[in-house]
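So, is this right?
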Amino acid sequence: MSTPDRVMLRLPFHGTWLARNSPARRVPSHGTHLFATTYAMDFIAVRGRRTATTRDWRTLLHTEPAERFFAFGQPILAPAAGRVVSVHDGEADHVARRSQLALLPYALTQAARVRGGAGAIAGNHVILELENRGGYVVLAHLRAGSVRVGEGEPVLAGQELADCGNSGNSTQPHLHIQIMDSADPFTARGVPMTFGDYRAWRRPGRAPNVVERGIPNESEIVEPL
């Protein structure tokens, strides 16, 4: 089966973010086609390569406040012009889990979250219908109460939609983004995406590359131009 054409987006945030679960590394990027996540990607805000202000005993042994992570509360932008077709808000932001001790009990409840549907998996999220039938973009794990758009509202590329949070199936604050061929994640198929005009740091201490069009590699740090 042939791969659909890649849809061009802009990175939906300001500053430097770390790429995770990149489809440049493997497809399906999250290890499953479930909920149209075939080409999905995650981004975590960083300073240098640090994801949080603090690293202490809680990092090794316990849960951590979401507020100590750089991504938490950062504005999430529309990656392209379109129209809001769905908004889900009101899911709580969880504590963060970097510790293996904290991750183990969380992993044991994964199946229950999948059964819980979109709210349990994506948490607070916005779905945009792109112009010119470009597909449907999902921006997920948003901060509770931060969504600033409503269903049916047109949006411009770069417009603030909400803040990054730690809702849904998330172990630390980050943004999950994917494109689907329909608005229903239970029946949709994933669509590949590409990003335009960004800097990419592939190795620490090296000068960044300027990318006109591409897919961030796994563990690459990126920043929109």
User: Anything to note?
Assistant: The CA atoms of residues 121 and 169 lie 5 Å apart.
